[in-house]
Design brief:
By secondary structure, the protein is α/β, with parallel strands linked by helices. It has a domain of about 150 residues: Carbonic anhydrase (Beta-carbonic Anhydrase, Chain A, 3-Layer(aba) Sandwich), CATH 3.40.1050.10. About 45% of the residues lie in helices and about 15% in strands. The chain contains eight helices and five strands. α6 crosses α7. The chain is globular, with a radius of gyration of 19 Å. It binds cobalt (II) ion.
Length: about 220
């Protein structure tokens, strides 16, 4: 059997199982979504948010890209962020990286990867800025995994620096932003950082929400 057919067959079994457990399961699913979480993670197939957290359909609004970056000119991510924060009213944003990330590994090397290099450039910049700390580690794996953590911390900051998050903090005192790292070796999530609404924001990145003429 061709591999893709397995997915379609498994889907039939999944739908039947859901109906068996709860006859109106899909009626309720079709009514709408009210997820409490926005997950921004790596595209890596080994880090599927719903599976590793035992969540179900309807619980996690999701955006994934290579190496879980929050880039201020990425309309795709910004649209997901705006929809999740302003329309769905998520209470938590989880920015999740993972040890052994191929994107971070590539960013530390010199291979010519075309478009990927442009995307990964953001991580190269982080490596340059934090090199004195990262290079204290004695193996490539340890250096890479420290950069994975630094990348998560940086992307959490990038979220805080958006007018979308700052506007929601100002109006609704939500969402809380979490930085997590997933270990492929243990299957466990590490809770690296939590930023609550109202946390200090460097004045360079802070927007003035008292100005009635301000635009978002
Ligand atoms: Co990755």
């Amino acid at each position: 059997m061709e591999s893709y057919k397995r997915l379609l067959m498994a889907n039939k079994a999944w739908a039947a199982e859901k109906l068996e457990l709860q006859a109106d399961y899909f009626d309720r699913l079709a009514e709408g979504q009210d997820p409490e979480f926005l997950w921004i993670g790596c595209s890596d197939s080994r880090v599927p948010p719903v599976d590793i957290t035992h969540a179900g359909p309807g619980e996690i609004f999701e955006h994934r890209n290579i190496a879980n970056l929050v880039v201020h000119t990425d309309f795709n991510l910004l649209s997901v962020l705006q929809y999740a924060v302003e329309y769905l009213g998520v209470r938590h944003i989880i920015l999740c990286g993972h040890y052994g990330c191929g994107g971070v590994t590539a960013a530390m090397g010199s291979a010519r990867l075309g478009l990927l290099n442009k995307w990964l450039r953001h991580i190269k910049d982080l490596y340059r800025v934090h090199r004195s700390e990262i290079d204290l580690y004695d193996t490539f794996e340890k250096r890479r995994d420290r950069l994975v953590e630094i990348n998560v911390l940086e992307q959490v900051q990038n979220l805080v620096e958006t007018s979308i998050v700052q506007g929601a903090w100002h109006k609704h005192q939500r969402p809380t932003i979490h930085g997590w790292v997933f270990s492929l070796e243990t299957g466990l999530l590490k809770d690296l950082v939590r930023v609550e609404p109202g946390a200090h924001i460097d004045p360079v990145y802070r927007y003035d929400f008292d100005d009635p003429n301000g635009k978002d």
